């Protein structure tokens, strides 16, 4: 098969309007979490499915932002609230100018949810 | 773009790094609220340090979840929109008597 040749673009930074901005992403996270988890109760069978559904939904919504050359990662953690201690931490080894991470926490009576979205720029 | 061999993401290698980082921090300790921040940071730090020593053209994301054990369940899900040929993720779960620790490492080739 013939391989398509692509010229080097020498683009090392996203243009101003195509940057991955924390604010709209945070709003998306909040919207999706409230929509999906507002009525949700913790249920051993359904919650794993719900976790995946939330992650997929967030990813699809992020794709709709049409940020060219950005790779996206979405991580969702859902646990039952039983008064236990939980610590979620995250650090990255990347280009702080172009790459961003946004996190949002949601809680109701039976469960807590931490959703984190990362945007990584491809040079 | 699609490098063979040396510059690949090797899951086993990264998994070893994560396992070592968790084990060196969390063996023979019990869950303490004051210490958990420090442990979390320590685990992530040592993971990133080892990963950067691999000298591969990757950007890394490391997340660490430490949860006290009291029978409560926890679910995690990860989705990614990236190049499956070059990028990868690896997940490591280690638990002791009082807590569970899950470390997830994402690697994106530059």
Automatic annotation (TrEMBL), chain A:
GO terms for molecular function: dynein intermediate chain binding. GO terms for biological process: microtubule-based movement. It comes from the Eukaryota. GO terms for cellular component: cytoplasm; cytoplasmic dynein complex. Belongs to the dynein light chain Tctex-type family. PANTHER family: DYNEIN LIGHT CHAIN TCTEX-TYPE PROTEIN 2B, T-COMPLEX-ASSOCIATED-TESTIS-EXPRESSED 1/ DYNEIN LIGHT CHAIN. This is Tctex1 domain-containing protein 2.
From TrEMBL, chain B:
GO terms for molecular function: dynein intermediate chain binding. Gene3D superfamilies: Tctex-1. It comes from the Eukaryota. It holds the Pfam family Tctex-1. This is Dynein light chain Tctex-type 1. One of its GO terms (cellular component) is cytoplasm. GO terms for biological process: microtubule-based movement.
């Amino acid at each position: 098969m013939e391989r398509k040749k692509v010229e080097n673009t020498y683009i090392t930074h996203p243009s101003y309007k195509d940057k991955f901005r924390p604010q709209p992403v945070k709003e998306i996270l909040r919207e999706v979490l409230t929509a999906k988890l507002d009525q949700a109760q913790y249920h051993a069978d359904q919650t794993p499915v719900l976790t995946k559904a939330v992650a997929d939904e967030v990813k699809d919504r992020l794709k709709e932002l049409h940020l060219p050359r950005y790779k996206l990662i979405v991580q969702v953690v859902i646990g039952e609230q039983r008064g236990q201690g939980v610590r979620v931490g995250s650090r990255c080894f990347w280009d702080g100018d172009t790459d961003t991470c946004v996190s949002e926490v949601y809680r109701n009576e039976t469960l807590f949810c931490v959703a984190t979205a990362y945007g990584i720029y491809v040079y | 773009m699609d490098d063979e061999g040396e510059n690949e993401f090797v899951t086993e290698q990264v998994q070893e790094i994560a396992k070592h980082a968790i084990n060196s921090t969390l063996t023979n300790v019990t869950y303490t609220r004051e210490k958990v921040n420090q442990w979390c940071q320590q685990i992530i730090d040592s993971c990133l340090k080892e990963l950067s020593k691999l000298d591969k053209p990757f950007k890394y994301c490391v997340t660490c979840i430490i949860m006290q054990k009291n029978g409560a369940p926890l679910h995690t899900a990860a989705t990614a929109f990236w190049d499956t040929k070059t990028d990868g993720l690896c997940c490591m779960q280690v638990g002791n008597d009082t807590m569970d620790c899950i470390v997830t490492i994402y690697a994106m080739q530059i």
